[in-house]
Amino acid sequence: MVTVCFRVQKNGAHGETKLFTQNTHDLNLCPVRHWLSIVQRFVHLVGCDEHIPLAVYHDATLNRVRYLTSTDIEQQMRLLAAELYDLDPIRDAKDLARFSAHSLRVGACCVLQALSFEEHEIEKLLRWKSKTWQLYTRNLCVVSQKHNKTIFDASMMPQF
Predict the structure, then answer these.
(1) Would the pTM count as exceeding 0.70?
(2) d(C-alpha 135, C-alpha 104), whole Å
(3) Do 4 and 25 meet the contact criterion of CB atoms below 8 Å apart?
(4) Is the separation of the CB atoms in 109 and 102 below 8 Å?
(5) Are 13 and 129 in contact (CB under 8 A)?
């Protein structure tokens, strides 16, 4: 298990700590393993410096260490979306522009809600400080399916 301290956060909850435990079902999805990998890469690239954010990488073209930024994530998200959905970067630029670093967080909200996580669990797991995440999950297929099942179950109830 590992405890991570988020020193600075967009949501203002600076210094928040979060406990991560091992995923014994699938090591490729183990958060402890991934955090250790991040720390090892950091130490390899910059040494031990608590004033530098952990999100760094080696840029081979510039041959230097750079911070991982939302722009870097956005570029990767758009490349992945173009490949996954067979989108053309020029012809489908408007559609690709919808993918951002925020898409990861939104996708996580959708997955957790589809898996029937409670609202407070989604907010705690993904560090949301408001209910705005619900704006992104309002149109899920699984919600419609649950609605249909509820209507069917209600229709099978004896008449009062």
Answers:
(1) yes
(2) 15
(3) no
(4) no
(5) yes
The string of pLDDT tens digits covering residues 28-51 is 999 999 999 999 999 999 999 888
Q: What share of the chain is helix, strand, coil (3-state, %, to 5)?
A: 50, 10, 40
* Alpha carbon distance 43, 7 (integer Å): 18
CA distances for 103 relative to 29, 70, 154, angstroms: 19, 11, 36
At which residue do the structure tokens 């260490």 appear? 65
- AA letter at 78: R
Of how many residues is the chain composed? 160
Residue 82 CB partners (closer than 8 Å, separation 6+): 88, 89, 92, 96
Burial class (CB in 10 A: 0-12, 13-18, 19+), 71: exposed
127 pLDDT band, cuts 50/70/90, is confident
